[in-house]
């Protein structure tokens, strides 16, 4: 069965040395490390990630996706390139560079590639301008943002105008964890990725719920990576806490958290049948879209394999593989290679 994968990352191999251009650090560049391989290297020379050419080679990624029956790839940058800690004028240049590359990929394969741009979120006014350019000029379907922007969670008043403009533009918003909390306590065992990412995503979902963002923006099409992180498992505790201590939890929004589970989307990347069953119970198939985190090792190596192993009814599988993504993206089958 053909499928849309909403969680696939892409890079341009020729990344500029932005630290040299902007006069401050905090950036990543690529260094060749072997045939069809490269290292993502921070300015302090530490290696962030070893990657292969399927991150930047469109022909290879199309070939691999075809073998996995992924007909449509929803492309977004690698979150380490968000650059929210950079000076705003640097961040907007980086975003424009990445978004122009993304738009060129989508233009070259308009039925196979759908793009989600990146924004200089540390400057909301600049972020709105780039959001408008992404959707209006570049033809991207939406944007990918982080679970927080420095000290701002997604309920911050600074971020709200960006989300409001995305809602007005009918732009899809994909929230990906990054810059995980408590790094001083997660220096070993790859814990930022194993524990920090799920916690970051749950924090982001709670922020848009308790902060009233979803209440004020009923048309916002927002999706969260990695099955919503730890949120589905802790929803019962979150709901109970809301009822037990409304004085603490309902300060900005009196609507119970459970009222919003049908208002957000999540991808299917949970790695475990029991977790996917819980995801289906909490959100329903009409809010779950296939997402693989291609081409990174913590992703699903064959997109959709877990779903296929579940012996779900054909309508449910079709919804997760295609229908939910089309709805979230605001696309039709006729526009894409389906």
Summarize the structure in words.
The longest helix is centred in the first third of the chain and has 21 residues, at 88-108. The protein starts with a strand and ends in a 9-residue tail after the last helix. The protein has helices at 18-22, 58-67, 88-108, 124-137, 160-168, 191-210, 213-216, 231-244, 246-249, 273-283, 305-308, 314-329; strands spanning 3-9, 28-34, 37-42, 47-52, 70-76, 113-117, 142-146, 148-149, 152-153, 172-176, 222-224, 265-267, 288-289. It has one domain (3-9, 58-332): Metal-dependent hydrolases (TIM Barrel, Alpha-Beta Barrel). The protein is globular, with a radius of gyration of 19 Å. The model has no long low-confidence stretch (mean pLDDT 96). An eight-stranded parallel beta sheet has the order 1-5-6-7-10-11-12-13. Strands 2-3-4 form a three-stranded antiparallel beta sheet, with no helix packed on it. It is an alpha/beta fold and 338 residues long. Helix 4 (124-137) packs parallel to helix 5 (160-168) and helix 6 packs across helix 8.
Range of helix content:
25-40%
Describe the global form. globular
Uncertain stretches of 5 or more adjacent residues: none
User: Termini separation (Å)?
Assistant: 10 Å
Structural class, from secondary structure content?
alpha/beta
CATH superfamily: Metal-dependent hydrolases
What is the annotated CATH architecture? Alpha-Beta Barrel
Strand content: 15-25%
Radius of gyration using CA atoms only: 19 Å
Number of domains: 1
Largest sheet: 8 strands, parallel
How are the strands ordered across the major sheet? 1-5-6-7-10-11-12-13
* Average pLDDT for all residues: 96
CATH topology: TIM Barrel
Q: Which series of helices and strands comes N to C?
A: EHEEEHEHEHEEEHEHHEHHEHEHH
Question: Count of helical segments?
Answer: 12
């Amino acid at each position: 069965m053909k499928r849309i994968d909403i969680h696939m990352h892409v890079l341009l191999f020729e990344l500029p040395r932005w630290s040299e251009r902007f006069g401050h650090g905090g950036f990543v560049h690529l260094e060749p490390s072997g045939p069809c391989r490269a290292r993502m290297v921070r300015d302090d020379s530490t290696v962030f990630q070893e990657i292969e050419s399927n991150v930047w080679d469109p022909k290879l990624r199309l070939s691999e996706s075809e073998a996995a029956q992924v007909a449509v790839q929803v492309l977004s940058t690698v979150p380490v390139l968000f650059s929210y800690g950079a000076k705003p004028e640097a961040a907007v240049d980086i975003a424009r560079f990445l978004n122009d590359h993304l738009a060129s990929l989508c233009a070259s394969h308009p039925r196979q590639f759908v793009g989600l741009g990146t924004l200089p979120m540390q400057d909301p006014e600049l972020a709105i301008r780039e959001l408008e350019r992404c959707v209006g000029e570049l033809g991207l379907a939406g944007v990918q943002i982080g679970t927080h922007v420095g000290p701002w969670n997604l309920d911050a008043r600074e971020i709200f105008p960006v989300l409001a403009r995305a809602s007005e533009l009918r732009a899809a918003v994909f929230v990906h964890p990054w810059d995980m909390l408590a790094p001083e306590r997660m220096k070993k065992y790859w814990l930022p990725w194993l524990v920090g990412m799920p916690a970051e995503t749950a924090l982001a979902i709670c922020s848009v719920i308790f902060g009233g963002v979803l209440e004020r923006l009923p048309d916002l099409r927002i999706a969260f990576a990695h099955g919503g992180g730890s949120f589905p498992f802790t929803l019962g505790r979150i709901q109970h806490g809301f009822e037990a201590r409304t004085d603490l939890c309902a300060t900005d929004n009196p609507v119970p958290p459970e009222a919003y589970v049908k208002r957000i989307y999540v991808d299917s990347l949970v790695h475990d049948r029991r977790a996917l069953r819980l995801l289906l119970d909490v959100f329903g198939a009409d809010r779950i879209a296939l997402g693989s985190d291609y081409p990174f090792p913590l992703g699903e190596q064959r997109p959709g394999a877990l779903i296929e192993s579940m012996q779900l009814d054909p309508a449910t599988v079709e919804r997760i593989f295609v229908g939910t993504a089309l709805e979230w993206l605001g696309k039709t089958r006729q526009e894409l290679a389906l």
